[in-house]
Amino acid sequence: MTKAELEQCISAYGKDIYSFCVYLTGSIQEAEDLYQDTFLKAVEHTDRIRTDKNPKSYLLGTALHIWKSRKRKLAWRKRIVDMQSLTEEKDTGQWERMEQSAETQFLQKEETAAVIEAVARLPQRYQIPVLLFYMEELSVAQIASVARIPIGTVKSRLYHARKILEKELEVVLNEQRS
User: Fold this and answer.
1) Which end of the chain has a smaller Cβ tally under 10 Å, C or N?
2) How far is it, in rounded angstroms, from Cα 163 to Cα 157?
3) Angle, alpha carbons 134-138-139 (nearest 5°)
4) Distance CA 24, CA 68 (A)
5) 54 CB-side CA count, 13 A
6) How many Å apart are CA 173 and CA 171, to the nearest integer?
7) pTM, whole model, 2 decimals?
8) CB atoms within 10 A of CB 36
């Protein structure tokens, strides 16, 4: 991959990679670091990225691998020495303003917040496939490639995550609509 092709990848997939980093880390500052490290790693390994394949999948996999590695290192350090948490409060992001009534906007914000919180409460093994499937719109095969797990495992995790989310959100969303 040439530098021009890498620049095209950044312009084409940069926003998606960044939003995925924000969801993973829950912090704007950590997401920016993860985003930069992802593309630094891509620059180091430009020979591995093939533009005729799916470079977005490779970049998402790189971001996921770096994030998991950081989490392991942080957990290890916490076991050795009691350190204060380096994470910031989760930023749920800003919702786009829609030209609707204030009541409709409020209900939509509440529903969106409920979904974001429910996904955030999922165990990590379910959260990653859900984010990649619904947010990044990757196929099951692409998720398997990114997460380095079998396709059947991805399908199973998506199924279980949907069931958990359905139970959690059924109560919340029914209360809001009543």
Assistant:
1) C
2) 10
3) 110
4) 10
5) 15
6) 6
7) 0.57
8) 12
pLDDT tens across 106-163, in order? 777 777 788 888 888 889 899 989 888 888 888 899 899 888 899 999 999 999 999 9
Q: How many CB atoms lie within 10 A of CB 122?
A: 19
Sequence-ordered alpha helix ranges (H) in the chain: 3-25, 28-44, 55-80, 102-121, 124-130, 140-147, 151-177
Integer angstrom CA distances of residue 58 from 13, 48, 66, 159: 11, 9, 12, 24
Give the tokens for residue 57: 């999948």
Tell me, letter by letter, the H, E, C secondary structure of 139-153.
Answer: CHHHHHHHHCCCHHH
Cβ-based burial of 131 (10 A; exposed 0-12, middle 13-18, buried ≥19): buried
- Cα–Cα distance for residue pair 124/23, rounded to 1 Å: 12
